[in-house]
Each structure stands twice: as C-alpha cells, then as structure tokens.
Write a structure and sequence with these properties.
heterodimer; A: alpha/beta; two-stranded antiparallel ribbon; 12% strand
Chain lengths: 355, 106
C-alpha cells in the first residue's frame, strides 16, 4: 500500500497525505465531535472503516449493494436552470422540465420545487404562482415532490424587514432590545411559514421542507419548530422535513426555550429531539465543514455526530450533504471523489436513514 | 448539480428506476427509519429487501403493478395515476392523490 492517500482540504484543495496523518485527523475529528456533544468517539473499528473508504484508490466509491438509502433534496431541481449563485448550470429548462428530468433521468428518490430566493418570506407575496406551479407539476410527478425553502429569519430585520436589526443592536449593548426584535421576527416568520405551508397544503402538497432552520440563530430554529407544530395541528397528514443549519444552534438570543429546553447551543441530538416533539417526519442534520481542516478530519467529525444522532432519533435522519456540510468541501463545485466518500461513510458508518 | 448526481450514484435507492420513491413515501408518511421502510415496502411487493434496488426485478414489478416506470411507456400509468396505485399498494395517503380523488368524486 502506498504510504500516501489522495484527499482534500475542507476548501477543496487536493493534496497527498501520509497514512499516519490521515489516521491522526480521523482520530482528532472524532474526538472533537465527541467532546462537543458529550458522546463516545467512533470505535476503532469504525475509524478503520472510515480510513478504508478514504484510502480506496478508485476515483469514486459507493455504498455496498443493499445498503442504499433515500436521497432527498433541497432545491436540487433548481440547479438545472439557475445560475452560479444557486450552484446552477443554467440549462434552459422550465421548472417542470427540471423536476421531471431529475426524477426520470437522474433517478432521484424525491424531487422538489423552490423559489429562486429559497426563503419563505419572498414566497409569501407570490404564493399563488408557487401553488399553481406546484399543483400542475404534482400531477406529472411519480416520486415524492416537496416544496422547500429556508426560514431565513434574517430577512425580517431592517432594512429588509419590519423588525429592528438585532445584529446592529447587540454591538451597541442593547441586548434586551435585540432580544425583543428577535422574538418579534420569530413570530412574523412562524406566521409566514404557516401561511405558505397552508396555501400549498390546500393544493395537495406532498411534503414541505424547512431547510437550514436556525441559520439566524435560536429564534430562527424556534420559529421553524412552532411552524411545524401549527401546520401539523392543521394538516396532520402533511409530511414535513425540518433540517438544521449546523451542528449546534447559535445563541443569538440566548434565552429561548422549546419544551423547557434552551435552544441556544443545542447539538444535533437535542435538535432531533426538538424536531420530533414538534411533529416533523424527517430531520435533516447539518455539520459545518471547516475549510482549514482536511476532509478526513471533517468527515470523521460529521460521522461521529451523525451516528450518535441516528441512534437517538425515532424519526428518519437525513444527513445534509450540500456544499460545506457533513464533510463535503466548502466550494462551488464539490469534487466527486470527496462527495462519494462522504456519501458512503455517512451511510455505512454514520447509519444515515437518508441524505 | 454534479454533486447531487454523485450522491445519487453513490448512495441513492434509485427513485422510480427501482423502489426508492416507495421507500421515501414510508419515511414521509409513517416516519419510518430506513430499514423499517425497506422491510415494509418489500413485504408489500412480495420481494426480498435486497431486490428493492434491483432494476431487473423492480422494472417488471412496477410495470405490472402500474407504479410508473422510468422509461416512458405509451398508455402506462405515470404521475398522479401511478401515485394512486402507489398509495393503494402501500396503504398510505398521498395528499396530491387525495385531492385528485376528491376532484374526481372517487
């Protein structure tokens, strides 16, 4: 065996690493996740399996036959026709053509529709257009067809939204004012999530995705949880996938709770329990990639978080595997050598129910 | 886009090429973990779990049961009609199908 392994850094830079360095990075990545979440590190056997996946000399790898999982998506069909900002390849396809191409030419397990801004707030004003497109396309699709967007509470702060800007208030020492602004934004956002979800539910929505919940902190995550609760009370048969924004929730407010548990600082085990309590059907787990660490370090860390989270969860856990999460390098064109290794490791070692 | 396709090649069940969509429905409508969802679908189809991703088996099954096939067959169920069959087979409610049935007075 060669004493060097071809791999990458978290920013996508390709490099040869000594076997000993790869093993050390795997151990360090596992230890970092274990320490942060208070869980055991991956066993030596699992670390060896991860090493073997990373050391596999083939250009791409895959899971073993029979171990395949569901690959859901968060707006992947938009990448057919959108541009660089959405990771899009700019082919001149309509939304329906893109969805059906993804379903039939790519063999995806689920498909989805989303607005270019991919946030719920801008969807509100054009909801009838979105509902019309969703309904029409849902008549032609066979695989489960989601509507997805991000809660993205940041859009509710001035100058883009109605609430005082919490990020401007905090540096001024106006902590309580910043908290009140976030609480107000949280309520507006929850109302919008319920409004958009309801309009789509009324035209036969098959599944709703709250993608990257918590990106603006604990109030953002709370809004998504409350949105799930309210939608489930109104439409008990509406499947909802709620995904996180990172391995822990930023405490931009710091005092908000859900089910008597503080939201700020929730790691993925606590996140999935909150998502279960709210009533969502699938939890999307995100772990941020560190660009200055290697893929072996990042992947070991993500697998450690994932395995503990899937063990604790009673609902399916889909690992988020887009750019810069769960070990995928943070770059516009994630290299397929790393993408497939991340894919295989998260499924076979992390025991993901889906990606 | 290439990233999504790489994940599909590496780990995906295969959607309507095989039984990926059927297993996904069970995760969505019954909150089933992956192994439970696979076992449920395999039992409904009367096949081994291992064959859920076997194109050789699933191709004919989907055609025979009217679940929609990945290649387009003139006159074959697709879209909402295939989803009606899928909902019946899996004993689940698919919301778009429920709306369609209500519109049709079914």
């Amino acid at each position: 065996m060669s004493n060097q392994i071809l791999t990458r850094m978290g920013d996508g830079e390709r490099l040869w690493m000594d076997v000993e360095d790869v093993m050390e990075d795997i151990q360090d990545g596992c230890a970092d996740a274990a320490k942060r979440m208070g869980i055991p590190a991956l066993s030596q056997e699992d670390q060896k399996k991860l090493f073997d996946i990373l050391a596999e000399p083939s250009r791409i790898v895959s899971v073993n036959p029979g171990e395949e999982v569901i690959v859901s998506d968060d707006g992947t069909t938009m990448s057919f026709y959108s541009g660089q900002d959405g990771g899009g390849v700019g082919t001149p396809l309509s939304r329906q053509q893109a969805v059906l191409t993804y379903e039939r030419a790519c063999g995806a397990d689920t498909t989805s529709l989303g607005h270019s801004d991919y946030s719920y707030k801008p969807v509100k004003s054009i909801i009838n257009f979105e509902a019309n497109d969703y309904y029409n396309i849902s008549q032609a699709t066979t695989a489960p067809f989601f509507y997805g967007a991000q809660p993205n509470m940041g859009l509710y702060f001035q100058p883009d939204g109605p609430c005082p800007n919490a990020a401007e208030l905090m540096p001024l020492g106006k902590i309580e004012e910043a908290r009140r602004a976030q609480e107000q934004a949280c309520e507006y956002l929850t109302d919008d999530l319920v409004f958009v979800g309801s309009k789509l539910a009324d035209v036969g929505l098959e599944g709703l995705n709250f993608d990257t919940s918590g990106s603006a902190g604990d109030a953002d995550f709370l809004a998504a949880l409350n949105g799930v609760e309210r939608l489930k009370a109104k439409y008990p048969d509406l499947p909802i996938l709620m995904g996180g924004a990172g391995e822990f929730i930023l405490g931009m407010h710091g005092e908000l709770t859900y089910d008597d548990k503080r939201i700020a600082g929730m790691y993925t085990i606590d996140q999935v329990k909150a998502v279960e309590k709210a009533g969502a059907d699938i939890y999307g787990m995100a772990v941020n990639t560190s660009t200055t660490e290697s893929v072996p370090w990042n992947l070991a860390r993500a697998v450690t978080f994932l395995k503990a989270t899937t063990d604790a969860a009673t609902i399916p856990v889909h690992a988020n595997v887009g750019m810069g999460v769960c070990g995928i390098p943070m770059m516009e064109q994630p290299p397929i050598d790393c993408v497939t290794r991340v894919s295989k490791a998260l499924v076979q070692i992390g025991k993901a129910d889906g990606l | 886009m290439g990233m999504a396709i790489a994940h599909i090649m590496a780990s995906c069940m295969g959607g309507i090429r095989t039984a990926g969509d059927l297993v996904a429905w069970m995760q969505m409508t019954r909150k089933m973990k992956i192994n439970d969802a696979k076992a449920y679908v395999a039992k409904k189809l009367g096949i081994d779990v291992f064959d859920l991703t076997n194109e050789e088996i699933m191709r004919e099954l989907r055609k025979d049961l009217g679940l929609g096939t990945v290649t387009s067959i003139a006159g074959g169920p697709k879209g909402i009609r295939a989803k009606m069959k899928i909902a019946e087979l899996l004993d689940i409610k698919i919301r778009s199908v429920e709306l369609f049935k209500a519109q049709m007075g079914l």
